[in-house]
Amino acid sequence: MVKKEELLKEYEQVEPTNVSKTHFPPNFVFGVATSAYQIEGACEEGNRGASIWDDFTHTEGKIIDKSNGDVAVDHYHRYKEDIDLIAKLGFDAYRFSISWSRIFPDGLGTKINMEGITFYNNIIDALLQKGIQPYVTLYHWDLPLHLHESMGGWLNKEIVKYFEIYADTCFASFGDRVKNWITINEPLQTAVNGYCTGIFAPGRHQHSSTEPYLVAHHQILAHAAAFSLYQRKYKDKQGGNIGLVVDCEWAEANSDKIEDKSAAARRLDFQIGWYCLKYSVNVISLN
Hints:
This is Beta-glucosidase. Pfam families: Glyco_hydro_1. The chain is about 45% helix and about 10% strand. It is an alpha/beta fold.
């Protein structure tokens, strides 16, 4: 592993004001990113179903300034303008997420909402026309509210099959043009902040010693199901890539004491290893 001091020394001659694309490898991808609930708005248009974030932001006391995603930056109606801005800034890629409840309003996969399919088709086509590659996230925290209320959402292992149905529909509908897929964005954030601290939707904290671990485990299973489905059914024909986005927060021991080293190792096991490696002894012992 390269030490921070070595990395900084390598680039110490580069002035921040003079950094340009030429300082990066030719295949480096410059992009911008968003998520559906944060930008789309139009929460009751296009036959979209409610998500847990709709419910959370409209619950008294959850958001101090009472802001919500009902309108947001109105990307639903202004996506062409937004894509023009991305193109003018010279970016190569745009990562956005699909709202599960725009594709399946109840989350169950019983009936495809074609207005949702059309909306995302339009975004993908507009990006490609501008020479911008779409990087598509299937799940960026906005679980269909019906799945949460009817079966417990990520607390219920049954959600894995519903996520696979949803992923299958997206691969079939958009995979001829989308070559980079992300199954779930930062699953640890959902598990901890949604089911431990309660500061994210669905705002649960009553069973913080068990629920975050169940949620994390079920999201890993959902990722594995979607990944396996793509490799098995779509990879040869569509030729895309698929993976998981993990927010990697590094941890180092405060001293050479065995207690500090063990604490740092546990932190890394749960923060990174749980999602990127096989289940460690630390993780298994708490599950």
